[in-house]
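The pair is quoted verbatim as follows:
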Amino acid sequence: MRRHLLAVELDSDMDLTTLASRRVQIEAIANNRYRVSPQLKLYKCEGHSFVGRYLRRRAPQLGWYAGNASRPTGYFTTGNV
């Protein structure tokens, strides 16, 4: 069953708060650090892939990610981060 509400913390060189929607809340928690909290119930294993797809759909300029491909720790517009 899809029963997990998740909160993923990410780094980014772009202001991600402008990408928030009614069902996906994005709040700034520190300098270039954001908490993404979808109000959708998901399987635990699909949380990071949902966030990645959501961010890439809403901001195609986010071309680079940091961390593991299955659990990125950040999304960036340039690869020089």
User: Anything to note?
Assistant: The helical segments are 47-58.
